[in-house]
Amino acid sequence: MRRLILTTMLAASLFAAAAELRGGAEYALADVPAELTCRLPKGGSTRFLLEEAPGFEWAATSFMPAEVEVALEHRAGGRASVVANLKGREDAPVLIEMAYRRAGNASAAPAKTLRLVIYKVKGGPVDPNYPKSRTMEFLKTECANRGIQIVDWHLHIRGGMTPELAAEREAKSGIRSTAMENHGREWEICDNARLRAFAEKAKQVQVNGHRLPVGIQVNDRDWFRQIDAETRAQFDYILADTMIMGKLANGRDKRLWLVKSLDELGGDPEAWMEQYVRHNLQILDEPISILANPTYLPAPLNAMADKLWTEARMRAIIAKAVAKGVAIEIQAESPYPRPRFLKLAREMGAKFSFGTNNFDPRPKDLSRWLEAITWLDLHGEDIWTPACLKR
Fold first, then answer.
1. pLDDT tens string 319-332
2. What are phi and psi of 249, to 5 degrees?
3. 202-212 confidence digits (pLDDT tens)
4. Long-range contacts of 220-224 (CB under 8 A, 24+ apart)
5. CB within 8 Å of 207: residues ≥ 6 apart
């Protein structure tokens, strides 16, 4: 009977609007869809975050234990971390039902519900290695000719990516890997003890006779007061971006990639942009190593990018990065930094780094790295090279 009910529900769901789940995605409470779908091979996993209000929480109310393992963690700051690991052999889709209700009151009617439908795909876990391609061959040849040691400094340990898989990727591709985790009050690693545990574990992974460089992406603007000196010394680099700025009405951080209207930014693009530039400069005053996603704008402002990103604003940010020795990241499969910013940064003597900003172990297309190296005519002396690579 259970299989019949499940099959009926899944069949009905095919006619309803469903959103495709991307591993690592975050959903504001107002935007949680009625249904999410994803496709996983046997042994695959997916992870996503759901917003929670004080006194309320998400719970997995039903799923097929033989087919999927669901881990749900409630974090400080109002985020529920959901991880689904697919274990079963059967071909039928798996359904996970979740309910959002007042904490400790399982009998109350849920304020929201979410169904996650996992469809099986053939094959084992995702291959983390770069496929052979002309782009990869050209990239390695250009780097060798220009004296560039290319490193993926923005390699997240999330969505199934592990330090071990990162090391395997480096061994097979020749492109150096790293291991990086997010830190912040609203993130899974939110204190010194968890940071040290991550660093200790990641440093045990060896590849080609060396350990992986280990880093943090910092998301709170007082991170350098939260993380003690002993813990910070365990990390080889610190990466930041500018995509979290300000607070929501409930006191939580405002994630700019979730902003959907100009009203959420105060209604005046120029006034908001002045605040945003100051936000950029504040971050560059922090003891960071790499600035990721420079020139990012929330979606409502994208059409105004050329007007809002004036040369004076870009020069102010680049000059601060140069003065502080902070590298400008060139990200794979990303429009950021915008070409005008990159060209100006090259003229002003900035150092550059490379990153993929992965959501899972799937390798990204590195064409943008190659294009930037050749277009900007970069050489070894233009690339950020920290002490951990010189040892």
1. 999 999 999 999 99
2. -60, -30
3. 999 999 899 99
4. 220/183, 220/184, 220/185, 220/253, 221/282, 221/283, 221/286, 223/183, 223/184, 223/286, 224/286, 224/287
5. 167, 168, 170, 171, 177
